[in-house]
Structures are given as C-alpha cells and as structure tokens.
Amino acid sequence: MSPDSSNAREWYDLLDLFMPADAEAIAKATDTISDALARLEVPEEKRLQVALAVQEALANAVVHGCENNPSKEVRCQLQCDSQGGILVTVTDPGPGFNPLSLSDPRQPGKLFAEHGRGVSLIRQLMDEVHIERADAGNQITMRKY
Amino acid sequence: MDISVRKRAEVQLIQLRGPLRLGPAVDELRQVIEEALGKGDTRIAINLAEVPMIDSSGIGLLVRFLASTKKHGGNIKLVQPSKFAVQTLRLVGVLNLFEIFDDDETAVKSFA
Fold first, then answer.
1. Among all residues of chain A, which has the CA nearest to that of B18?
2. Could you tell me the CA-to-CA distances from B11 to B54, B96, B106 in Å, in that order?
3. Counted domains in chain A
4. Domains in chain B, please, with CATH?
C-alpha cells in the first residue's frame, strides 16, 4: 500500500536492490541510492536526508527484520516522480513490529540510550512514512516531496 | 572510515573521515574510544569536519561514551560537526548534551 496521494502521480523506477542482511551491504546500498539521487541533481540537503532515512530503514531491516543473518535478504526500491518526489520502500522478511509501541527517544530518560532512535529519525527526515506487514514481509515506505 | 588519533595536553584528539554509521565505522570508533578509556584517557575531542552523516548507531555510540567519560571526570566534545550532523543531533534531542567547538585547539583548551 502506497501513500494515497502517490496514486495521483506517476512513479518511475530507478533502483531495485536486493542485498544480504549485513552491515557492509547497508552502506553500499545507501551510497548507491545517494549516488542515484546526485545524478538526478537532487539538492544536497534533501539527498542527505533521504540517504540517512534509507540508512536507518536498512539498519532496522538487517538488525531486527533479519536478525543480522546475511543469508536473508533485504529489498530496497527507489522511485521518483516528475515533480522531484522520492519514494523509497524497504522490505525485510521479519515478523514486523507495532510502530505505536515505540517510545519517543527524545524523552529525558532516554537521551543516553544507545539504541531506539531509528524510526523517530525516519519520521522526522521524510514527509510521509508508512510501516506495514505486506505479503513480501515487513515493509516501510518513505516519501520525500 | 579513516580514524586518526593524537594526544595534545592530555586530550585525545580523534579525527574522523567518512560517514559514522552502523558497521565498520562505528565498530572502529568504539574500539578507539575503548582503548583510550582503558588507558585512563577520559578527555576526548572528536573532529567531525569530514563526517557527512551520522546515523543513529553513531549517535548511540557518542552518547554512550559521553555518559561513561563524564562518570570518570572526563568528557567527549565535538569539533566542527557539519550542518547536517548538527541537524541530525538536534532531531534526536541530543545536540545540547555536547559541547561543540569550531577547531581542535579551542576544544583542547576547554578541558583545562
């Protein structure tokens, strides 16, 4: 399921990556996406924001969705529209999670926590974020206008 | 990621080059800081001028060691973080936990 407003736009497929669930593959995939956005002349600030959101989504997919098992695979799809909109979808085979169960990492008692900031960051960097359980697995769809 | 370490006036100056993110980069920085702490060096300044991106794993590492150095009378201070790194630290609410400096020299002097 894509964001409803995206149905009115035509999305062009740019990248469809399948990567093993390990940390080095995350970096490679993030850099590939960043390079693709640079070739599209996406402004630097927007490119960094999308790249970081992708990094966080892939990290969650690898660590939580695939339990750091490199024999499992994560899918990362990049699309854009003619108005500069960017759509990234990350899918992992994990059981998924309830995003409502996540606490705000910016609460005073959580500021020194080592983990737990990824989804919060994604939500702040991107304009629309949807997390759902799809046939293919756990899926996060992130859109930047 | 490239990491270089030098000591000046009892302060460990760590220079990073490359994204600070989950994987070898965070693992290497963790090792460097743990080695410093193991020797009793709790005064650390990290130069981020050439770090275009810090992800939540990098941030988690920084705050974790900020807490441990402070517990032992030290600190971790940041030098020249990029505009985007500052934005990221602010978004997750930890920017104000750190002292930030424009250059290594001023950061070192601040430990005196």
1. A27
2. 23, 21, 12
3. 1
4. 2-110 (3.30.750.24)
Whose tokens are 């996540």? That residue is A102
The pTM (predicted TM-score) of the whole model is 0.93
- In DSSP terms, B45 is beta-bridged to B13, B77
| Chain B interface includes A118 (CB < 8 A) | yes
Average pLDDT, chain A: 90
Q: Is B52 touching A (CB cutoff 8 A)?
A: yes
Q: What is the DSSP letter of A102?
A: P
Chain centroid to CA B44: how far? 7
Between B24, B56, B66, which is nearest A121 by CB? B56
Single-letter residue type at B29? L
pLDDT at residue number A3: 44
Could you tell me the residue range of the domain that residue A116 belongs to?
A: 4-144
Nearest to A85 by CA among A53, A127, A119: A127
Helix spans in chain A (H)? 23-39, 44-60, 118-125
Tell whether A25 lies on the interface with B, counting CB pairs under 8 A.
no
Q: Note down pLDDT in tens along chain B; length 112 residues.
A: 999 999 999 999 999 999 999 999 999 999 999 999 999 999 999 999 999 999 999 999 999 999 999 999 999 999 999 999 999 999 999 999 999 999 999 999 999 8
Nearest CB neighbour to B22, from listed A59, A111, A121:
A59
Chain A residue numbers touching B61 (CB-CB < 8 A) = 114
User: Any idea what the CATH number is for the domain that residue A20 is in?
Assistant: 3.30.565.10
pLDDT tens column, A52-103: 999 999 999 999 999 999 999 999 999 999 999 999 999 999 887 777 778 8
